[in-house]
Design a protein that fits this description.
Radius of gyration: 25 Å
Helix content: under 10%
Distance between the termini: 87 Å
CATH class of the domain at 27-115: Mainly Beta
Number of helices: 0
CATH architecture of the domain at 27-115: Sandwich
Length: 149
Amino acid sequence: MLREGVTWFGQTLTVNVTVSGVPGAPTITTQPLSQTADFGGNVNFTVVATGNAPLSYQWRKNAADLSNGGNISGVTATTLTITNAQLTNAGTYSVLVSNTNGSALSAEAVLTVLPEPGLPATWGRSTLPSSGIYEEERVWTPGSQRSSG
């Protein structure tokens, strides 16, 4: 039998090939982990990914791309760093890893920031609702004093 310029003798060979994913596309091998930080503490979120180089990284908070500045750095690196954590840093973090063959979005990691030490529970309470919009409520009760700091 003649097939594409090659002469074949004997039986025809049939091979089934299963292809999963795009070769060289990023795969996240270590997901960022949820953390709890003290007010004013430092936080590092880290991701490990494989795929054809170069890999690029874009960290996100509550599904919005982050930019370096203030107390946040490493938004395009494997490790996102938050220094001097504030209540406004609480939220859901993820990272998009991409290259010319595709992209992969990490699992979400939740950052919880504990209230400022010495702040009476009746003085301040902060929450981060599912909308991702920061809300703060301050209630003064007679006899309580706000700590300076």
